[in-house]
Design brief:
By secondary structure, the protein is of the alpha+beta class. It contains eight helices and eight strands, in the order ααααααββαβββαβββ. The longest helix has 24 residues, at about 40-65.
Length: about 270
């Protein structure tokens, strides 16, 4: 049996806001900073797109650099037989706490959980323009908030409101990062097979991996992005809360595990 992969500390992937918005100056709800800096849904979409495009460009440069020394392996995922379901996190309350500590959070948050999980039933936000985003640790399917005139209430407004609902109970929201991103992770690296041959980085393999991702993104743009007239192909948009509401979960959520505290009603 192969030995578990070792984490490569040199390949860190920090979550930095690349939209041009300075969140370090925000007080209170951090999601207000971007909203206050944007005049419309179109501008909010542009900020999300700038963050996504800038990050992908930086990762492409990292992958294709002569100094690239391999991907960041996930030794925990390597050990999992059945990784959990795909999910997108609208709001992370806290992380890396013990089960008793999480129980305390849940108890304090409980008065607001029904309102939080049902919120998308009456506050509907569209996500569009799917694209693969990637770094040396993972590949994700990402979206940006819709930017049409009728999209005055965006996914970023939803995140802002969920933050307010959570903190109204006295809970302190301690998310690891607050960046303009709407993504669900679809793959993580558990070995170096995609970028190495015979124990060494294979520049040809790396180039083909990047080219494949970029090729898929071209297909996504052609088939699933809005048309020039603003029309959206059926199935090309994600209305958050459709079919089921938000899922308040606890436990080992990083890998799609854990358990539902409450699932909101869909439409």
């Amino acid at each position: 049996m192969a030995s578990p992969p070792q984490l490569n500390p040199e390949n860190s992937n920090t979550f930095v806001d690349l939209s041009g918005i300075n969140n370090s100056l925000s007080h209170g709800n951090p999601y207000n900073t971007l909203i206050e800096a944007c005049e419309s849904a179109t501008h909010i979409q542009a900020r999300y797109a700038k963050h996504r495009d800038t990050r992908n460009a930086a990762q492409r440069e990292k992958f294709t650099s002569p100094d690239f020394n391999g991907v960041t392996l996930d030794p925990v995922l390597y050990k999992l037989v059945n990784p959990g379901h795909l999910h997108m996190t609208a709001l992370e309350i806290t992380f890396s706490l013990t089960a008793p500590e999480i129980s305390t959070f849940i108890h304090q948050l409980s008065p607001a959980i029904p309102a939080i999980t049902d919120y998308t039933h009456s506050h509907r936000a569209r996500l569009v323009k799917p694209m693969l985003s990637y770094d040396t640790a993972a590949i994700a399917l990402s979206f940006v908030p819709a930017g049409e005139a009728e999209d005055g209430y965006s996914y970023h407004h939803l995140r802002r409101d969920l933050y307010d609902l959570a903190t109204s109970t006295g809970v302190e929201v301690a998310s690891r990062y607050v960046v303009p991103s709407a993504h669900l992770t679809v793959a993580r690296f558990v070995n170096q097979d995609d970028v190495e041959s015979e124990g060494r980085v294979d520049r040809g393999k790396v180039a083909r991996l990047v080219q494949r991702i970029e090729g898929l993104n071209r297909e996504l743009r052609e088939r699933w992005w809005p048309k020039e007239d603003g029309g959206v192909r059926e199935g090309a948009e994600w209305v958050v809360g459709q079919e089921m509401g938000l899922d308040c979960r606890r436990g080992v959520l990083w890998y799609g595990g854990g358990e539902s505290v409450r699932v909101g009603k869909g439409f």
